[in-house]
């Protein structure tokens, strides 16, 4: 182990009266892959903003290679050898891939771009990030898949390293694999190791503990803005890390109360959408959780969208209770079918509106009039029932953590009192504690006779929460079998079409 | 047909050619005459120069409603400076300088105070209009134009078109190149496309915004100088509603009001299309009210076509 490269001591930062960081310490050596773990709201994003020079700490010190680290902004931080890959997919949709990779570090003379130099920089970085999978540097960012966008971000960080003469001292990766397939993950990990061997310190922020075990050598756990533990990954039990993150044992992460399936609430026969799904048939009964497994891009989200009326039905039949045929989302809600999008911020929530407004969005009041006092009262009830952490019904959703945003989205469906919940990746990108709470909530709902379609890429969750599981592969939904007949290996092999 | 529209920028060009052909067929004797073409070029000049600035602003995700007032204000400043006995160069510098300053202040408020560009420039629109009226004591300012009237005069002795038109060409070429081939241009698209991304990538978003409004102000000032050249007086009530015409030209040219999209070439085509319709209708003897309906319809159709093109992707 080399000399410490990044040293954080007693870092503190408050926004208004709420402390975001309340004593963070971290030490990472040159060439080390260091995992930064913590639930959402633990202070990771604030920590990263401070490292990037976007925010200044109230107290405490950051030193890089022994010198105080006080960048004047992200441009300065990049120039001085600290690059970031953001989880929020920071790409300009209207710009092409090359322009996105070179953004902020465009080779230029007297303000004029130097096309050839840029091409050299961009091509090298893209080649390393995408490997043999070619990507057109002139494709617009908005036309790329989510996985490709994430790799473009990685390429940008690599380009930064090249543009600064290879002196990339620290690379911060925030959930870099959340939408990547297995082969892309492998190549990214290869890149990370390569960079680390070259002396770059990699700070790896992630929720995926299996990944942390694979790639990181050391870890630091944050909770409520404080460092609560750190150590060698190899010498520490994963369960111990989870305990540090949550501050409690999650013994029964997936509670399961006995349920008795009732009559069929939702069914599909030979259902096909415009492009995806290709073919899907299933039955969903009252008091049942139907899990949908499969790879990202297999058509699971599209299935839910077609069911909810967001996408067109090309062929086949949907039956909701006694109603047959396609319907608009408004009609579906009236029939008692609700949809929670995986894209929480984009379409699941109106993030600039308050918690109360979001909760009562689809059902403002009995007569269609939304009285503010009434929606505040309704919201207060759900905030209490689901344990949504917020300052009150009037707080804007954008200010909440991911887990609490997700609870607001689910509460909207519950407030509408739907019978069928279509949940798309309900626990993605949220903290361990919220995950457990949402699992418990789904269990409670099923016990009360609601029916749930659960799309999830996290296999333990699928196995733990669903009664029956059907796997989607290239747009085709397989037969639904009891969860007990599945394990992670069988789900995976069915997902890749073996 | 869909393939045709897929090529960005081709749509407006096709529309321009079609309208041109239509009027050439309806009034072959007068419309295609060389003197008429020069007249149209002259009439496009003011809108075109302002449209270059507006394109940059709209690409960056902003809007500038103060263009019409800035043009009028500039004519008044130029006239007042000339009447005070200064030379034409001083008058031009004073006029363009005043408009640039206004843009600079707008940009600073948008960038530093994070105010909505619509509100800031709406305020500037009223302030500049009032300022122009106050400066001119609510009358036209008569003065000796001292050669400035020659900028758009047909007999100025420049090849093909008057010097003012050449100025517009130069501005358009410079603007187009800057938008496409400079770091500043790239950053305008980035800020308009996703400001948050530009920020985390180290783009100095505030500087880009201040600069773009100042530049748009300067170009509005230049447009004002050319407007003075045709008016030969300072007129505080001139160019009311010009900003909408300029915005229409930019939007017809394929820019998106939500930022990140647009080209100078497209905007110039948009400005020319509107000029062709205006003069063409006059030649054919179409009533003014029909002309206005036609212009409005073209704006709406242009954006509708753009939407359909986007949905096809």
List the helices and strands and how they pair.
The complex is a heterodimer of chains A (498) and B (313).
Chain A lengths: L3 E12 L2 E12 L3 E6 L5 H9 L6 E6 L2 E2 L5 H6 L2 E4 L11 H6 L5 E2 L2 E2 L1 H16 L15 H18 L6 E5 L7 H16 L3 E5 L3 H7 L2 E6 L2 E7 L5 H9 L17 E10 L6 E6 L3 E6 L5 H9 L4 E8 L2 E2 L4 H7 L1 E4 L3 H5 L6 H5 L12 H15 L15 H15 L3 E5 L7 H16 L3 E5 L3 H7 L2 E6 L2 E2 L3 E2 L5 H8 L3
Parallel strand pairs in A: 3-10, 3-11, 6-9, 9-10, 15-20, 15-21, 18-19, 19-20
Antiparallel strand pairs in A: 1-2, 1-4, 4-5, 7-8, 11-12, 13-14, 13-16, 16-17, 21-22, 21-23
Chain B lengths: L1 H5 L3 H17 L1 H4 L2 H26 L7 H17 L4 H25 L4 H19 L5 E2 L20 H19 L1 H11 L1 H6 L4 H27 L1 E2 L7 H11 L11 H21 L3 H25 L1
Antiparallel strand pairs in B: 1-2
Task: Describe this structure as you would to a colleague.
The complex is a heterodimer of chains A (498) and B (313). Chain A is an alpha/beta fold and 498 residues long. Chain A has two domains: 4-246, Rossmann fold (3-Layer(aba) Sandwich); 264-495, P-loop containing nucleotide triphosphate hydrolases (Rossmann fold), CATH 3.40.50. Chain A is 35% helix and 25% strand. Chain A is built from 17 helices and 23 strands. Chain B is built from 14 helices and two strands; from the N terminus they run H-H-H-H-H-H-H-E-H-H-H-H-E-H-H-H. In chain B, helix 4 crosses helix 9, helix 4 (34-59) packs antiparallel against helix 13 (264-284) and helix 12 crosses helix 13 (264-284). Chain B has one domain: Orthogonal Bundle (ABC transporter involved in vitamin B12 uptake, BtuC). Chain B has helices at residues 2-6, 10-26, 28-31, 34-59, 67-83, 88-112, 117-135, 163-181, 183-193, 195-200, 205-231, 242-252, 264-284, 288-312, and strands at 141-142, 233-234. The A-B interface holds A 52, 54, 73-79, 84, 86, 88, 90-95, 99, 103-106, 108, 111-113, 143, 156 and B 181-184, 186, 189-190, 192-194, 196-204, 259-261, 313.
């Amino acid at each position: 182990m080399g000399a410490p490269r990044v040293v954080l001591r007693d870092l503190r930062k408050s926004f208004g009266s709420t402390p975001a960081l309340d004593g963070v310490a971290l030490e990472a050596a040159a060439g080390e892959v260091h995992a930064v773990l913590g639930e959402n709201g633990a202070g990771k994003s604030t920590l990263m903003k401070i490292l990037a020079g976007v925010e200044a700490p109230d107290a405490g010190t950051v030193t890089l290679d022994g010198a105080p680290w006080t960048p004047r902004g992200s441009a300065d931080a990049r120039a001085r050898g600290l690059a970031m890959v953001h989880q929020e997919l920071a790409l300009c949709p209207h710009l092409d891939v090359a322009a996105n990779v070179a953004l902020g570090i465009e080779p230029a003379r007297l303000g004029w771009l130097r096309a050839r130099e840029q091409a050299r920089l961009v091509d090298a970085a893209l080649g390393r990030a995408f490997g043999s999978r070619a990507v057109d540097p002139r494709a617009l960012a908005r036309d790329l898949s989510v996985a490709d966008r994430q790799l473009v971000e990685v390429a940008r960080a690599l380009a930064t390293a090249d543009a600064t003469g290879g002196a990339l001292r620290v690379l911060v990766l925030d959930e870099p694999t959340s939408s990547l397939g297995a082969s892309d993950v492998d190549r990214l990990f290869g890149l990370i190791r390569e960079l680390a061997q070259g002396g770059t310190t990699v700070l790896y922020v992630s929720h995926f503990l299996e990944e942390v075990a694979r790639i990181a050598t050391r870890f630091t756990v944050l909770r409520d803005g404080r460092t609560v533990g750190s150590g060698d990954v190899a010498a520490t039990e994963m369960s111990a890390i989870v305990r540090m993150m949550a501050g409690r044992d999650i013994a029964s992460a997936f509670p399961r109360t006995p349920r008795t399936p009732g009559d069929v609430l939702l069914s599909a026969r030979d259902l096909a959408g415009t492009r995806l799904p290709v073919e899907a048939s299933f039955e969903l009964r009252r008091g049942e959780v139907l899990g949908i497994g499969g790879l990202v891009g297999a058509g699971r989200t599209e299935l839910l969208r077609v069911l909810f009326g967001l996408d067109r039905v090309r062929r086949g039949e949907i039956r909701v209770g006694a109603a047959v045929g396609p319907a608009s989302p408004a009609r579906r809600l009236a029939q008692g079918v609700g949809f929670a999008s995986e894209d929480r911020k984009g379409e699941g929530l109106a993030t600039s509106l308050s918690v109360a407004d979001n909760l009562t969005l689809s059902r403002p009041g009995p007569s269609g009039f939304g009285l503010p006092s009434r929606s505040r009262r309704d919201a207060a009830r759900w905030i209490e029932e689901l344990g949504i952490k917020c300052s009150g019904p009037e707080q804007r959703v954008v200010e909440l953590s991911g887990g609490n945003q997700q609870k607001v989205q689910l509460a909207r469906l519950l407030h509408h009192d739907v019978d069928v919940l279509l949940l798309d990746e309900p626990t993605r990108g949220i903290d361990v504690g919220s995950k457990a709470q949402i699992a418990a909530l789904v269990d409670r709902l099923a016990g009360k006779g609601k029916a749930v379609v659960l799309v999830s890429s996290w296999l333990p969750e699928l196995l733990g929460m669903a009664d029956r599981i059907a796997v989607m592969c290239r747009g085709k939904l397989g037969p639904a079998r009891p969860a007990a007949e599945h394990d992670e290996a069988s789900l995976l092999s069915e997902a890749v079409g073996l | 047909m869909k393939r045709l529209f897929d090529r960005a920028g081709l749509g407006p060009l096709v529309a321009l050619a079609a309208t041109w052909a239509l009027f050439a067929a309806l009034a072959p004797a007068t419309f295609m005459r060389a003197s008429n073409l020069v007249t149209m070029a002259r009439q496009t000049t003011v809108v075109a120069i302002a449209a270059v600035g507006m394109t940059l602003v709209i690409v960056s995700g902003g809007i500038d409603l103060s263009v019409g007032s800035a043009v009028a204000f500039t004519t008044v400043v130029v006239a007042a400076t000339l009447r005070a006995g200064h030379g034409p160069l001083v008058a031009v510098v004073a006029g363009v300088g005043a408009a640039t300053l206004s843009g600079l202040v707008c940009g600073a408020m948008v960038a530093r105070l994070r105010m909505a560009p619509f509100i800031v420039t709406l305020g500037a629109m009223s302030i500049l209009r009032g300022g122009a009226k106050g400066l001119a004591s609510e009358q036209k300012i008569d003065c000796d134009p001292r050669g400035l009237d020659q900028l758009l005069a047909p007999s100025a002795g420049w090849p093909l078109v008057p010097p003012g038109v050449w100025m517009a060409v130069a501005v358009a070429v410079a603007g187009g190149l800057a938008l496409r081939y400079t770091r500043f241009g790239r950053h305008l698209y980035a800020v308009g496309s996703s400001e948050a991304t530009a920020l985390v990538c180290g783009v100095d978003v505030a500087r880009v915004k201040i600069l773009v409004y100042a530049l748009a102000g300067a170009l509005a000032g230049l447009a004002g100088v050319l407007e003075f050249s045709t008016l030969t007086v300072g007129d505080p009530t001139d160019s009311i509603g010009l900003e909408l015409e300029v915005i229409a030209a930019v939007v017809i040219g394929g820019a998106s009001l939500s930022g990140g999209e647009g080209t100078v070439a497209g905007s110039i085509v948009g400005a020319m299309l509107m000029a062709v319709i205006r003069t063409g209708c006059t030649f054919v003897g179409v009533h003014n009210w029909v002309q206005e309906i036609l212009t409005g319809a073209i704006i709406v159709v242009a954006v509708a076509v753009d939407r359909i093109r986007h949905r096809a992707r």
